[in-house]
Amino acid sequence: EAQVTQNPRYLITVTGKKLTVTCSQNMNHEYMSWYRQDPGLGLRQIYYSMNVEVTDKGDVPEGYKVSRKEKRNFPLILESPSPNQTSLYFCASSLEDPYNSPLHFGNGTRLTVT
Amino acid sequence: AQSVTQPDIHITVSEGASLELRCNYSYGATPYLFWYVQSPGQGLQLLLKYFSGDTLVQGIKGFEAEFKRSQSSFNLRKPSVHWSDAAEYFCAVGEPMKTSYDKVIFGPGTSLSVIP
After folding, report:
1. Average of per-residue pLDDT across B2-13
2. What gap in Å lies between CA B99 and CA B97, rounded to an integer?
3. What secondary structure does DSSP assign to B23-79, as a single string?
4. Theoretical Cys-Cys bridge with A42: which of A29, A73, A77, B106, CB 3.0 to 4.6 Å?
5. Are A107 and B41 within 8 A, CB to CB?
6. Min Cα separation B101/chain A (Å)
């Protein structure tokens, strides 16, 4: 089944403890992206990648890192999480780019930082 | 900078009634326009998109949207709502004529409740 898989679905952590949220797609998509969803703000882009080894900042990249060493994987790293990073996170992928081919989303990771 | 507004935070309709969700954008040219739906506990799914051509576009699940350049709007409609349509709906905008098609800006979303 074609899908974007995120893990974990739920994560509770403490301030400053490094964490990684994994994202994998099995559709051979070129484009991958991370978003955070907060009430009243919609989805805001954190980082995106047009291809392997090519990543770029979105609108809210501070406090996050990403890597794209393989086409299928695009992990999101929080080196030192803070409470303002408590949010619902979505990974998405697209065959070419999000204008010409639809974004496929994972089911989300709900992160709580205390 | 381009932006997307969805004036209605929450809408409640009765099953079988018609639906219109509003979306306005601010951008000088005609952007790529999208509607995505988010069912509870899931990621987003594309309903439809518009870039050029016929200003009335048809999507999945019986939805349609109309682009009105004069009003900078891209409202989503459905003639008869089903209980399964209860979800969060996001309008989104993409900036055309860029060298890299990399960013889609999402609106804040409209939450739809359906009364049986």
Report:
1. 92
2. 7
3. -EEE-SS--EEEEEEE-TTS-EEEEEEESSS-SEEE-GGG-EEEEEGGGTEEEEEES
4. B106
5. yes
6. 6
Is omega for the bond preceding A8 within 30 degrees of 0, making it cis? yes
Structure tokens at A53: 């080894």
B45 within 8 A of A105, measured Cβ to Cβ: yes
pLDDT the model gives residue B1: 65
- The two tokens of residue A49 are 């990648």
Q: How many residues appear in chain A?
A: 114
Closest CA to B70 of B50, B55, B54, B86: B55
Taking the C-alpha atoms of residue B23 and residue B46, their distance in angstroms, rounded to an integer, is: 15
What's the Cα-to-Cα distance from A70 to each of A47, A54, A76, rounded to whole Å? 16, 11, 14
> Residues A41-75: pLDDT tens digits?
889 999 999 999 999 999 899 999 999 999 999 99
B87-115 average pLDDT score: 84
Q: Which of A88, A87, A100 is nearest to B38 (CA)?
A: A88
What residues in chain A have their Cβ under 8 A from chain B's Cβ atoms? Answer: 4, 31, 35, 40-45, 48, 50, 56, 58, 90, 92, 97-100, 102-108
Looking at the predicted structure, is the pLDDT value of residue B66 above 60? Answer: yes
* Rounded alpha-carbon distances, angstroms, from residue B14 to A27, A84, B45, B111: 38, 37, 23, 14
Separation between Cα atoms, residue B76 and residue B84, nearest integer Å? 16
